[in-house]
Amino acid sequence: MARPTESEVRLGSQILTWIGIINQLTEARSTRALAALRLPYPQFVLLNHFSHRPDAAQTVTGVAAAMQQPQPGVTKTIQKLIARKFLRAAPAPDDGRSKLLHLTPRGLEMYGRAIAALVPVYRDLFEPWSEAEMAELIAKLDRLKVWLDTKGRE
């Protein structure tokens, strides 16, 4: 594979800068919307992670690895979710030191309430976009996400 040109490197850098800015702006808006639920954004992010497979048991190590985040920070947020009864921890049958984490009905209900609180905040965001434009953007972002999630770990 040919080395990227200087122009391609600049464009790649600009793309990642824009994604970072979009992340900062959406996190700030989301944080304000979730404040009424007393749900800090990091807790929402973890509820979102668990909501994709609500019946699957996960370990802190697995969650931290999937999110490519330091385990101590993930552990601290998970402990807060357990204290709020949004997650339940049970001893792992094959390793007494490890806990299996399960999304609780209360956690799933809070996740639904959080999504409902976010809908009005982002309702108009994609209004001027066609479905084809949105599908094209998600396909390209998914390609980038998959690369970062697989090859980007190396």
Features:
Arc Repressor Mutant, subunit A; 2 strands; 6 helices; two-stranded antiparallel sheet; mainly alpha; 154 residues; globular
Overview of the structural elements:
Helix content is 64%, strand content 10%. It has 154 residues and is mainly alpha-helical. It has a domain of 97 residues: Winged helix-like DNA-binding domain superfamily/Winged helix DNA-binding domain (Arc Repressor Mutant, subunit A), CATH 1.10.10. The chain has a two-stranded antiparallel ribbon. α1 crosses α5. The mean pLDDT is 93.
Briefly summarize what is shown.
This protein is mostly helical. Helices cover 64% and strands 10% of the residues.
**Beta strands, count:** 2
Helical proportion, percent range: 55-70%
Per CATH, which architecture of the domain at 27-123? Orthogonal Bundle
Distance between the termini: 18 Å
List the helices and strands in order.
HHHHEEHH
Which strands sit side by side, in order, in the main sheet? 1-2
Q: By CATH's scheme, which homologous superfamily of the domain at 27-123 applies?
A: Winged helix-like DNA-binding domain superfamily/Winged helix DNA-binding domain
Taking the sheet with the most strands, its summary is:
2 strands, antiparallel
Helix-and-strand structural type: mainly alpha
Integer-rounded radius of gyration: 18 Å
Q: Identify the CATH class of the domain at 27-123.
A: Mainly Alpha
